[in-house]
Write a structure and sequence with these properties.
Pfam families: GFO_IDH_MocA, GFO_IDH_MocA_C3. GO terms for molecular function: nucleotide binding. The chain is built from 14 helices and 15 strands. With about 375 residues, the chain is α/β, with parallel strands linked by helices. It has two domains: about 140 residues, NAD(P)-binding Rossmann-like Domain (Rossmann fold); about 220 residues, 2-Layer Sandwich (Dihydrodipicolinate Reductase, domain 2).
Length: about 375
């Protein structure tokens, strides 16, 4: 018998359509298309072309017996309720990012998953499949460059014109989308940053709401975070920079990692811990270093690696890994429980910018965040408040 996992796709927009195409082309080892669900009846034509059952209610698809697992490609607020329903009905769940729009919502899904250990629960962080970031994580985990000192990510190549926001009445709203760049464009970077460098302990942030776009949510963010052992970090993102920059720096005791455009990585390794070099280098050597007379190879080595673009293949790899995890062949690259870290950091950035205070992520005030979110939803006057 085939061990292929029958996947049900909930939502057949751009993302869901791409997953259906990947399965149609047999590009996902260990997985086949089981069914499609969409609230738009006209999408039934595509299901008929693919030869799979079509549903307009995700609950009916989940309980139909036609699918072993589902992936949610729907508006952000719906991810947790669909994931919960799937797990409660013995169906594996892969939810798109973010795993929830606020931590209370995310925790509810994660708590249900903990009661169903026989089922797989993943989050679609496709950037974790990028070999570039996997290599950096391996270096960070190995400790070969020592402890983290500072990290910064300038990721402003999310340019979105006004027409992008005007496509739908739910887009770039508090009640419909739950935020701006932090929940729609940057969750992958928020996840990768914490995956590689560790989860921050606190954050102080400044965010601009409708700064250069006619929207109510954030289109520019500057956040300062603190990690354990005194390490710090900055995260800067925006949707109004048409030129855009993608640059990640990670400074450690014995070197530095610099990533440009998520493709080029430069790693500098110090021959000794920087503090040892600082202590032992005499001022004559310092003078030669500053004036360019020093043989820099005495103190450090530098290597640069260019990675090929992984666009498209990343999504296929997440689905393949999910199928392999269901069949007991691999561990999930992005377990669903990991998804709460990016949600908590985004929520904390919002809350810090709203209150003007530094926010403790180790004791995050979910109640205050939800009160502030609902206050903004009421002001919009178009959506129901959240609980």
């Amino acid at each position: 018998m085939s061990n292929d996992v029958r996947l049900g796709i909930i939502g057949l927009g751009a993302q869901g359509g791409m997953y259906a195409n990947l399965l149609e082309e047999n590009r996902i080892e260990g997985m086949t298309l089981g069914a499609i669900c969409s609230r738009s009846p006209e999408k039934k034509k595509r299901a008929d072309e693919l030869g799979v059952p079509f549903f307009t209610d995700y609950r009916e698809m989940i309980t139909s017996g036609e699918v072993d697992a589902v992936v949610t490609t729907v508006p952000h607020y719906l991810h947790p309720e669909m994931g919960i329903y799937a797990l409660q009905n013995e169906v594996h769940a892969l939810v798109e990012k973010p795993v929830g729009l606020y931590t209370k919502q995310a925790r509810e899904l994660i708590s249900i998953a903990e009661t169903t250990p026989g089922l797989k629960f993943g989050v679609f962080f496709n950037q974790r499949t990028n070999q570039l970031y996997k290599d950096i994580k391996e270096i960070m985990d190995s400790g070969e460059l020592g402890k983290l000192r500072h990290t910064s990510w300038l990721i402003t190549n999310w340019w979105r014109p006004q027409g992008y926001y005007d496509q739908s009445d739910w887009r770039a709203t508090w009640g419909g989308e739950g935020g701006g760049v932090l929940v729609s464009q940057a969750p992958h970077q928020l996840d990768l940053w914490q995956w590689m460098c560790g989860v921050p302990r606190s954050v102080f942030a400044k965010a601009q709401y409708g700064f250069r776009r006619d929207i109510v949510v954030e289109d520019e963010v500057i956040a300062l975070v603190s990690f354990d052992d005194g390490a710090t970090g900055t995260f800067i993102t925006a949707t109004h920079d048409m030129v855009g920059t993608d640059r990640l720096e990670i400074l450690l005791d014995r070197g530095k990692i610099v990533v440009e455009d998520s493709q080029k990585v430069t790693i500098t390794r110090l021959k000794e811990d920087e503090q040892v070099l600082s202590r032992d280098m005499d001022m004559e050597a310092v003078k030669k270093l500053f004036t360019g007379q020093m043989d820099i190879d005495l103190y450090m080595t530098t290597e640069t690696t260019e990675y090929e673009s992984q666009w498209g293949a990343q999504h296929a790899e997440v689905l393949r890994n999910f199928a392999a995890a269901i069949n007991g062949e691999e561990e999930l690259l992005a377990p669903g429980a990991d998804g709460i870290h990016a949600v908590r950091l985004a929520n904390s950035i919002h809350l810090s910018s709203w209150t003007g205070k530094e926010i403790d992520l180790t004791d995050f005030d979910e109640k205050t965040y939800l009160e502030e979110l609902n206050k903004r939803i009421r002001e919009e006057g178009k959506f129901e408040e959240r609980s």
